Amino acid sequence: MNANITVGQFGFRPPVTKPHPDFLKLVGEDRLRNLVTMHYELLRTSSISHLFPIHDEEEFEQAKKNAADFMIQICGGHPHFNENRGAPRMVDRHAPFRITEEARVTWLALYKKVLKELEGDVPEPIIKSFWDYLDVFSQWMVNTPTMK
Asked: Nearest 5°: phi and psi at 119?
């Protein structure tokens, strides 16, 4: 799959397109939750682990659940996130964390590894639609300029 990471520009928020509706139909809620869990386990030992509650197992598990609920909802599934946490307002929710372009690239690179699990089972254009969403969504989360 051609999963390029777009070079983001601090303060620029490109239009977001949700993943193709067939993504969730083909992957299913349980498998999507598993993909999010795999991603979080990679994050746990990454250079951006400080952005996640890795030292509190209960909070870390809750963060995984919240992320999976969000992804399921954004892919057209049940609105678990809204029911459990209210409106997503992801930019506001991420405001307390110093998210740089480098952190974004790391986050995406780890998702790229996880999405390889779908190759062969889910058509590439469908996976790509999810990737394209992640690429743009993550640009919105960058809230700290890179220091050079």
From this structure: -60, 135
Rounded to an integer, what distance in angstroms lies between the CA atom of residue 32 and that of residue 88?
A: 18
Per-residue tokens: 110: 């780890």
Residue 36 forms part of a structural domain: yes
Confidence check: pLDDT of 148 > 70:
no
In a domain, 146, yes or no: no
For the stretch 106-124, what's the b/e string if a residue is b when 16 or more beta carbons lie within 10 angstroms of its beta carbon? bbbebbbebbeebeeebee
Model pLDDT for residues 37-55, shown as the tens digit of each residue: 999 999 999 999 999 999 9
Domain membership of residue 43 as a residue range:
22-141
CATH number, domain of 69, equals 1.10.490.10
φ and ψ at 26, to 5 degrees? -80, -35
User: Does residue 14 sit within a domain?
Assistant: no
Domain tally for the chain?
Answer: 1
Question: Distance (Å, rounded) from C-alpha 72 to C-alpha 70?
Answer: 5
Q: Give me the helix-helix angle, 101-115 and 29-44, nearest 10°.
A: 130
Task: Using a cut of 0.85, tell me whether the model's pTM lies above it.
Answer: yes
Residue 147 lies in a domain: no
